[in-house]
């Protein structure tokens, strides 16, 4: 089909993130125009159920009047100010207080960024700064995991454990290490039980620490559920065992709650769902339900005290972003948390989770489906060429992308991560809408099967 006018303008003007650029010139983008509830509409007026909350972020859906009003009020009152050099604004103070109240650990202070990448980049800088302040300049390496996703700035992309984020970008930078991905279905060996797999994965972490020298390792970073690596839910006991290893060696646990925060797994935090006691936490995305860009890092009193002492020694704390703690983002963050509480979003997620699980489990019988994974209202469906051997499709086959395209034809938007179809619907979705989403997914899987076999 020839490109429409708006599609032509797009390909002539935009460099798109996470897109096969050569193909886009032929297909053109899907241009979205407006949204309401869990639906978005393209420029031709076609409606799609948005099963990914955009990029795992618009947890309260589209067109929420309370959020829009909060944004309008803040823009009227003070559209911009910052937190540099002793200035402040009340929305940032209020949001920091709210985050401290609900944090999954004894949070002392909140540092605002504009994104999840900046939050994780900040985490690494803070870990380095902390260990310099504490007189341990050699304790600087950060352990991440293969298939992790922590963002795309130079250091956060280095933390990310996905080949496309490293290849030809000259990454990862040094001092960033990657340990095994805890995905039993993909990396479990024949005959190995899930418990044995977990033990082996954690043993491998232990060996990495021993090889590098525990005195050189500052922190371990993990998403409670790996999102952009393919919605990988950790095996039982994994985080418990990991934390025991870290505790032996005085290694900080950085929880990247950018996807799992604010109710997604049925608790405020993925850390609660998986028994993680983090030392520090990164958030973004659902922090404002994506109505404005905002990220944050929550830190303990111990880190804060070290920073205060260092500041007294060397002067200003030399880190901060122009838009970190932007009034619009903070006002929206305050309102989003109020809505999560007033509309009891956690109970909503818990109430819908069994239906979400049941519809996912039903897909197990589909000829293309190798594994389904889920927790709360986030899930993944991994497509394979051979169910028995778990053989994946050849990478250049693009079967995930084919399925995502069929989904669009059936009025739904989900995200293909390689050959895993990710689901992360707005947490305000109704039971009927959830059924509609899965009906579209079933049809798209059948169409995909017909296309690829
Ligand atoms: N951390 C996690 C777990 C994420 O899923 C993402 C984005 O998808 C990020 C960090 C990076 O956030 P941003 O795209 O806002 O920089």
Automatic annotation (TrEMBL):
A Pfam family the protein falls into: Aminotran_3
Domain of life: Bacteria
Entry's Gene Ontology molecular function annotations: adenosylmethionine-8-amino-7-oxononanoate transaminase activity; pyridoxal phosphate binding
InterPro entries: Aminotrans_3, PyrdxlP-dep_Trfase, PyrdxlP-dep_Trfase_major, PyrdxlP-dep_Trfase_small
The keyword Transferase appears for this protein: yes
GO biological process entries: biotin biosynthetic process; gamma-aminobutyric acid metabolic process
Keyword annotations: Aminotransferase, Pyridoxal phosphate, Transferase
SUPFAM superfamilies reported in the protein's UniProt record: PLP-dependent transferases (SSF53383)
Family classification: Belongs to the class-III pyridoxal-phosphate-dependent aminotransferase family.
NCBIfam families assigned to the protein according to its UniProt record, in alphabetical order: PRK06105.1, PRK07480.1
Name of the protein in its database record: Aminotransferase class III-fold pyridoxal phosphate-dependent enzyme
Organism: Stappia sediminis
């Amino acid at each position: 089909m020839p490109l429409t006018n708006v599609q032509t303008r797009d390909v002539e003007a935009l460099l798109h993130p996470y897109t096969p650029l050569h193909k886009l010139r032929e297909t053109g983008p899907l241009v979205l125009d407006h949204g309401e509830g869990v639906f978005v509409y393209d420029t031709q007026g076609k409606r799609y159920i948005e099963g990914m909350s955009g990029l795992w972020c618009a947890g309260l859906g589209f067109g929420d009047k309370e959020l829009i009003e909060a944004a309008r009020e803040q823009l009227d009152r003070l559209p911009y100010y910052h937190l540099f050099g002793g200035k402040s604004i009340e929305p940032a103070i209020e949001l920091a207080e709210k985050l401290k109240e609900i944090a999954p650990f004894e949070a002392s202070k909140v540092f605002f960024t504009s994104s999840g990448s900046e939050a994780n980049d900040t985490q690494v800088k803070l870990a380095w700064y902390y260990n310099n302040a504490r007189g341990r300049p050699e304790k600087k390496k950060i352990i991440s995991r293969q298939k992790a996703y922590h963002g795309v700035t130079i250091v956060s992309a280095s933390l990310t454990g996905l080949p496309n984020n490293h290849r030809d970008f000259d990454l990862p930078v040094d001092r960033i290490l990657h340990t095994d991905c805890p995905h039993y279905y993909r990396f479990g060996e024949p005959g190995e039980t899930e418990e044995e797999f977990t033990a082996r994965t954690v043993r491998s972490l232990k060996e990495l620490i021993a090889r590098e020298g525990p005195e050189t390792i500052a922190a371990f970073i993990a998403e409670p559920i790996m999102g952009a690596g393919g919605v990988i839910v950790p095996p039982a006991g994994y985080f418990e065992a990991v934390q025991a290893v870290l505790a032996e060696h005085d290694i900080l646990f950085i929880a990247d709650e950018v996807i799992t925060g604010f109710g997604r797994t049925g608790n405020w935090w993925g850390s609660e769902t998986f028994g993680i006691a983090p030392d520090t936490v990164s958030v973004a995305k659902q922090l404002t339900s994506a109505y404005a860009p905002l990220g944050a890092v929550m830190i303990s009193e111990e880190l804060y005290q070290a920073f205060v002492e260092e500041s007294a020694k060397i002067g200003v704390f030399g880190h901060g972003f122009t838009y970190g703690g932007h009034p619009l983002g903070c006002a929206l963050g305050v309102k989003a948390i109020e809505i999560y509480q007033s509309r009891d979003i956690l109970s909503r997620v818990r109430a819908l989770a069994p239906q979400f699980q049941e519809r996912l489990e039903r897909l197990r019988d589909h000829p293309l489906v190798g594994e389904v994974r889920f927790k709360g209202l986030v899930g993944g469906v991994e497509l394979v060429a051979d169910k028995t051997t778990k053989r994946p499709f050849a990478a250049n086959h693009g079967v995930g992308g084919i399925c995502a395209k069929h989904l669009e034809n059936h009025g739904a938007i989900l995200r293909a991560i390689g050959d895993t179809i990710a689901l992360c619907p707005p947490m305000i979705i109704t039971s009927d809408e959830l059924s509609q989403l899965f009906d579209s997914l079933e049809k798209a899987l059948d169409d995909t099967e017909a296309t690829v076999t």
